[in-house]
Amino acid sequence: xxxxxxxxxxxxxxxxxxxxxxxxxxxxxxxxxxxxxxxxxxxxxxxxxxxxxxxxxxxxxxxxxxxxxxxxxxxxxxxxxxxxxxxxxxxxxxxxxxxxxxxxxxxxxxxxxxxxxxxxxxxxxxxxxxxxxxxxxxxxxxxxxxxxxxxxxxxxxxxxxxxxxxxxxxxxxxxxxxxxxxxxxxxxxxxxxxxxxxxxxxxxxxxxxxxxxxxxxxxxxxxxxxxxxxxxxxxxxxxxxxxxxxxxxxxxxxxxxxxxxxxxxxxxxxxxxxxxxxxxxxxxxxxxxxxxxxxxxxxxxxxxxxxxxxxxxxxxxxxx
Length: 320
What we know:
Largest sheet: 6 strands, mixed
Radius of gyration: 19 Å
Number of strands: 6
Low-confidence stretches: 15-48
C-alpha cells in the first residue's frame, strides 16, 4: 500500500497527537470526534514477540573538527520494542547538539490551528467526493476505531487518511509515545543538549495539505484498501529498521511509492532530504559532535540524506 509508509514515516507528527489522549484535542477542535485510545486487547498484545537482536543502522560523517552521526527514527512502536544499542547510546552521549525533524513533535496544541485551517473542508465533505460504496467502506473503517463516517465527513481526504491509518495502528498496539525521536528528544532535554529542528510542524503537514485533490483521494483510497493490513506493513518496516536491513527498509517504504506517485515522493522525501543535506553541510562548517535523528526512510535508498551529502562531496560511513 503506497501511502501507508509515507503516512507513518513523514506524517508521524500527527501520531504524536495521539499520545496521552491528545488526539482528542485535535479532533475535538476540528470535527468533535471522541478521543481514540487503544482497546484493552490491543494493550495486552502491544509487546512484541521474541525478535532478532537490535542493530539499527548508524552512520557517521567526519571532517577536521566535526563529527556528525545520522540515526533513523521510527515514529510509532509497540511498547517493549528493543532498539537501543551501545553504539547509538555512545554517539548520543558524545553529541553536544541534536537535530530532529521538529523540536516540538509532542506539542499537539501546535498542530490544532493548522488542522483547523487545512484539515477540514465543510463545503466539500467526504460524502461529496466518495462514491456511496466507498463512503460505506469509510464508515466500516471508522467504526472499527470508535468513530463513524458521518463524524469524519468534514475532514479533507489527507487528514481522514492519516486518522484512519494512525488510529488503526494504535488499535493494533502501536503507541506514538514510544517513538524513537520522542524518547531521544526527552533525553536531549534532560541532559541539556542544544536541540534544533530541520523544519516546523506547519511545513511538514503543509506538504500533505498542499496535495492536489486527485492525489489526496488516492491517499484516502490506499488507506481504506490497506486499513486491515496497516499494522502488518508497519511491522515489516520496524523489523527491517531495527535489524539494520537498509535494503529491505528501502523496498518496503519506497518502491511502490516512488513508482506510483513520483511527484509526491519527490515532495515528501527527496526535496526534504536535499534541504536537510544543505543544513547539515552548514553545520559541518562548525566544530564539535552532532547527532541527527530523522525518520528512517530518509536515510535509505538512492535519494537518501547520505546520497544528497555525497553529491556535495561529504561521505557518510556506516558505523559497524
